[in-house]
Each structure stands twice: as C-alpha cells, then as structure tokens.
Amino acid sequence: MPYPKKNLNSNETIALDMHPHWWYFAQPAAALVGSIIIGIVVAWKVDSGTARDAASIAVYVLLVITALWLIGRFLKWLTTNFVITSQRIIFRQGVFAKSGIEIPLERVNNVNFNQGIFERILGAGDLLIESGGEDGQQRFTDIRHPDKVQNLVHAQVETLVQQRAGYVGQSKVAGTDVADQLERLEGLLQRGTITPEEFAAQKAKLLG
C-alpha cells in the first residue's frame, strides 16, 4: 500500500516509498514452519489414541496461533511505510491505530546505518537518523539496502539546501532590482518628468 499522496505538502514529491524488508516476516514464518514440523512428528510418532488426540489439539492450536501471527505481521508490513520526500522523512505504521514519525530534512544532522554479515547478504539493516528535534535519534529497522537509503537522504538534504539558497539569491536580486527602479522613479519625480500621482502609482506597482 503506497503512502497517500494527499498527505504531502504543496510542491512536495516522493523520492522513496518502501515497506520493510522481507526479513520482517522471519520470526512468525519460522514459528509456523516449526509448528508444521511438530505436527508431522506428532502424527508420525504418537500412536496412542488419547495421547494422539491431545497432541493433535495442541498442534492445531499452535498452528492457528502462528498462522494468525504471520497474518498480523503481513498486515502490519502492508501498512508500514518508510518515505523520503523532497522535504521530509516519514515513517508511518498501523493497521487500525496509526502512529508515525516525521523528520524535516533541514533538521537532519547525521545518518548512519548498521548491517551484520547476515543482514548484508540479505540486503537489510537498520538506519539511525540524528536530527535537531526533541527526539534526537530515531532508529528504523528492517530497511532495504540501508546504505543506498543513507545516500538518498544526503542527496535530498543537499538538493533542499541548494534550492533554498537559490530562492534566497533570487529574493536578493529581486529586492535590489526594485530598489534601483524606485531610485530612478524618485529621480524622474525630482526632475519633474513625472507627476507625484504617476510616481505614487508606479511605486505601488513595484511594491505590490
């Protein structure tokens, strides 16, 4: 399930939207496989009628519990999004009750990732983001290719900084241009080339 675009800000674009790595299913899947194996062993080894019935009931209960665990984990995976936009880092999860974390890119101070040997083989890992907000550090687990995600975060931060620097530069240029034109208008007014009414009208246009 993709992140809803209706939740984006004006002129905000999505650079990455992903669910957790499939390793997220490891525990419930292993439990379900183990339950199946236990069921096979019970069916093969237990011959006594009463003991067999009791063991079968226990196996069925175990199978139902582990299957529900796996289904619940799948629904949680489906509704968990790690999103990088042109303005924010967003983490959102929850099937019925929702919870989320948002980190503005301008507050990101540092991005680190952690991968064990096995996780590196699988292409999974953890991402640690340090920000200037109240929470300080946020750890996100089961991230796909965290090294590439780290590079993407840095790229988005750099792009945002460059864009804002460009906007500031344009504002300064625009402000200088307006000041120059006002100075020219004042000169025309002093020389009597334009009337005070015309000066006021042109000034209003420049400042409007």
In short:
The chain has 208 residues and is an alpha+beta fold.
Multimeric state: single chain
> Level of helix content?
40-55%
Question: What kind of sheet is the major sheet?
Answer: 4 strands, antiparallel
The unreliable regions are none
User: Tally of extended strands?
Assistant: 7
- Class computed from helices, strands and strand pairing: alpha+beta
The proportion of strand residues reads: 15-25%
User: With helices defined by DSSP (H or I, 4 residues minimum), what is the helix count?
Assistant: 5
Spell the H/E element sequence.
Answer: EHHEEEEHEEHH
Gyration radius, in Å: 31 Å
End-to-end Cα distance: 46 Å
**Backbone shape:** elongated
Largest sheet, spatial ordering of strands: 1-2-3-4
Describe the overall structure.
The protein is 54% helix and 22% strand. With 208 residues, the chain is an alpha+beta fold. Strand 2 and strand 3 (88-93) form a beta hairpin. The radius of gyration is 31 Å and the shape is elongated.
Overview features:
single chain; 208 residues; alpha+beta; 4-stranded antiparallel sheet; 3-stranded antiparallel sheet; 5 helices; 7 strands; 22% strand; elongated
Detail the topology: elements first, then pairings.
Blueprint lengths: L13 E5 L7 H20 L3 H30 L2 E5 L2 E6 L5 E6 L3 E7 L2 H6 L1 E8 L5 E8 L1 H45 L5 H12 L1
Antiparallel strand pairs: 1-2, 2-3, 3-4, 5-6, 6-7
